[in-house]
Amino acid sequence: MSQFSYRAVSAAGELLQGQMEAGSVEDVVARLQDQGHTPLEARPADAAGGGSGFAGLVKRGPFTGDQLAQFTHQLATLLGAGQPLDRALGILLDLPEGERAKKLVERVRDRVRGGTTLSQALDEEHGVFPKLYVSLVRAGEAGGSLEDTLRRLADYLERAQQLRGSIVNALIYPAFLLVGVLGSLVLLLAYVVPQFVPIFEDMQVPIPWITQAVLALGNVLQGWWWLILLVLVGGIAVWRARLRDPAQRLAWHGKLLTLRVVGPLLLKIETARIARTLGTLLKNGVPLLSALTIARQVTGNRALDEALGAAAEQVKGGGGLGAALGQSQRFPRLALQMVQVGEEAGQLDTMLLKVADTFDLEAKRSIDRLLAALVPALTIVMTVLVAIIMAAILLPLLSLTSNIQ
Q1: Distance separating alpha carbons of residues 258 and 150, to the nearest angstrom
Q2: How far is CA 120 from the centre of its chain?
Q3: What pLDDT digit, counting tens, does each position of 190-207 carry?
Q4: Which residues, 6 or more positions from 150, have their beta carbon under 8 angstroms from its beta carbon?
Q5: Structure pTM?
């Protein structure tokens, strides 16, 4: 008998964690399920913990996000074609391109052949597969609908990757433009402008205030760049240290949601992510309270995490999900209305997935509008700053020319 650490969600939606003495990880999972709990993690007590929640989807490992979605989709297709699970995993050995990924699939297949459930075989990879992924597979196994569960999971992963990919692709050009703007300004101020200092001193003509300001800024950048860099690094370190305080992080994340431009966009992205997670979990037969607890792991915003916790407490007391989420005044009104309609029609899982589709589309439109305005704005800012620097250089030269005439 060995000691194992576990994390699970109770039927009342409470997150449970502790240690249990058992013969194997499978025994721990079986005991937790017999007690009516939904296991999230079970591993030897001395094993290192892996990543959790949505962060696991982007954690560097044998699988990229796209590969994980493709693996899940093809596994669901093979199971739907009547292939046994171990045979399907064997067929998928050639799917990943990397050697590490192939060995991972091979280890999972060998565990399944040895009698281990798929969810447990995935969980023994210690953080390669997200807790949400493992929990959904386990729920599909318990409900006898592993194929449908994998299809929904593949759809979840593909949509998450599409949103992330669209954001990254849209940011490539503005990022290069921003680097070009900052690089050009630093080069002008730190190297080009100081070259004119001795020329202006020899001319003995009045130097305009704009030229004096630009020359001073150039001298500061040239002589004290190391101090500026040190202050920036120190400021970032202090800010990160402050955010380690739960109260400070909660306040900052709450403020982020209220920012004029960024706040609504972040709220749409997080709402779509939470709604898709809840809808997928409910579709697979996970109780609402357990689904709310698991869904808290996918949001990166502490304020929304707290709102979900408060909603779970109200649902536990007999309240509806829409009314419970509305108490926090964090979520969009349209999402709350759609959730209430779904509850009244007895189709909460389907309506949550529609909420996710709606806000995914809204988030994409907002990103497109934001980036469409960002590129011209950066261009205008760069033009104005370069014009100011050129004016600072040319004004004394024009003054000299007029004096000579």
Answers
A1: 36
A2: 25
A3: 787 777 777 777 767 677
A4: 72, 73, 75, 76, 79, 137, 140
A5: 0.68
